Amino acid sequence: MRRFPRSVVVLSVAALVASTFTACSAATPDPKPAAEALTAALGSGDFSQVPLAGSDASAANKSVETAFGPMGDIKHTHTVLNAAEDEEAQDGVKTATATVQTTWDVDSSENDLTYETQAVMEFDQDAEQWKLRFDPAILAPDLVAGEYLDARFSEAKRGQILGGNGNALVKNRPVVRVGIDKTRTEADQWDSSARSLAKLLEIDEDSFANRVEKSGAKAWVQAIVLRDDASREVSDDEITGIPGAVAQPDEMPLAPTRTFARPILGSVGQATAEIIKKSEGKIQAGDQVGLSGLQSAYNESLAGASGVTVSRYNADHEAVAELLSSEPVAGEDLKLTLNENMQTVAESLVAETDSASSIVAIKPSTGQILAAASGPETNGLNTALKGRYAPGSVFKVVGALAMLRDGETPQSKVQCPASTEVDGKSFKNYDGYPTKAVGTIPFAEAIAESCNTVFVNAGKGLGAKAVADAASSLGLLADDGTGAEAFIGSVPDDSEGTELAANMIGQGVVESSPLGMATVMASIANASTVHPQLVLNPKVKEPAKAKSALTEKEAEQLQEMMAGTVDHGTLKALKSVPGAKIIGKSGTAEYDAERNAHAWVIAAQGDLAVAAFVEDGDGGAQTAGPLVADFLTKVGK
């Protein structure tokens, strides 16, 4: 947000000169087109095609580079306000004066630097063209040869990221910047010191030694930034025991711990070359910017606006005139719904998983996301909010809603054969499915015991559109309203045959994120469609309402069936969790020919809905069930 790119004036100066400077008529040509050719040259810095009186193009080019070069990539424009032939000739030579307005877009606000200068042109009778009398004062008021403009910026205070209780999740916390100061040791020790420090910090020795070698003789070469808290494992004494190694105290915007909601919150650091290039001059080398996550997505509002002072400097680099000055504007805080305690508990539970995993918790009454933890095996990816996975049997609550709308009730008798066939493809119940629940059973038991064949056979009669409408009513197909570019879910409305049959048991081509299935659970618990939210400000556009809203009666029927899952079905292990009554659904989704499977559980207790997911599990109840039980137990204390 500090600077904008220098303008590139896309004009053909040569063509403009040919058409405006060389008019071959008896009358003196209008000087304005010639003045406009001047402004084109001021923008490009190239006077090679501009006829000059008393000087040459290289001198003019150098003068512009000297005067404007220190302004870097700040965008500047030049406009001719007026140009007219002077009433009286000077020493028998016709002259014209043009007023040129120059504007520097120094920051993202309307606080531009604008000034006017005059340019004098003389008419060459022989060549029948206007020629510019170049003067450095054309570039800026009172500017003389050797002087220049420069903008000095003062960084704004970065906004904080706040949690649901208003406390800062990300704020300035103590750090130490560890590196080699080459002025503090002899040249013959630079390599050994760099390697010793890299080994101590457990970073790549060759890479760091190479950076130290290639830097200047008086350079400070940073190796790493360490949190200066109880988690720091390297002491100052260990660092300073290496010749030239230094630990410099500093502060950085950081979350409570290194891993806390990192895929969501992201990080802050020095702008990379890629970020600088993509910013088109808004960000400069050395700027602290959001590098990922919400820190990056909301960098503009978090960063605020730098203060800037533009001055004219003489050849001795002394400021001789201040042209513009503004104070920095602090960044805005970013308010989230995350509950710090719940997020910490969720992260502690997925920390021990051996594959990608997640726990997402939503407050059904408000839709606020209270926790969205992604396990360490996701390698920094935001599994909780952006993962796309087959939801398996937890998706049966969507199919159940479609069946309720088609006339079934929790007490309706349905057929649950051990296996069934659709268009030549065989489907069967999971290994270990209880034989007592095979045959004619109440519809509620199809949820409690997770009968595949009931739902597979129901698909054709319902049709894909009815299933997609049910998913929409449970919040799974809404546009993202979290403010974090989340993926909720995907359920096609045109599937047929075996694809539709597989969709009914959460396989086929349906997808959901852990957030999506937590949303489904929250909608059932709330008895109305829930749209999850994470970012409270800046205001995020609310998703459109579902075409077919979830009714209270439908929700009560789903709650009744999901209560059976915990009472005597696949999730009866949750009965031991203290507190209010729990409802839920387990799910397993095989994703390859070797029958490797995703493990899912969704559950609700009071005003809390939870989804747990493990990419490679033994089964929903066996792998994801304990995560939900532990989460509800710990946050309920």
TrEMBL record:
Question: Which GO BP terms apply?
Answer: cell division
Task: Provide the NTF2-like N-terminal transpeptidase domain boundaries.
Answer: 31-146
Residues covered by the Penicillin-binding protein transpeptidase domain: 358-631
Q: Name one Pfam family in it.
A: PBP_dimer
Which keywords does UniProt give here?
A: Cell cycle, Cell division, Membrane, Signal
What Gene3D superfamilies does UniProt report for this protein, alphabetically? DD-peptidase/beta-lactamase superfamily, Penicillin-binding protein 2a (Domain 2)
> Where does the record place it?
Membrane
Report the residue ranges that make up the Penicillin-binding protein dimerisation domain in this protein: 155-320
Family assignment from sequence similarity: Belongs to the transpeptidase family.
**What protein name applies here?**
Cell division protein FtsI
Q: Which organism is it from?
A: Glutamicibacter ardleyensis
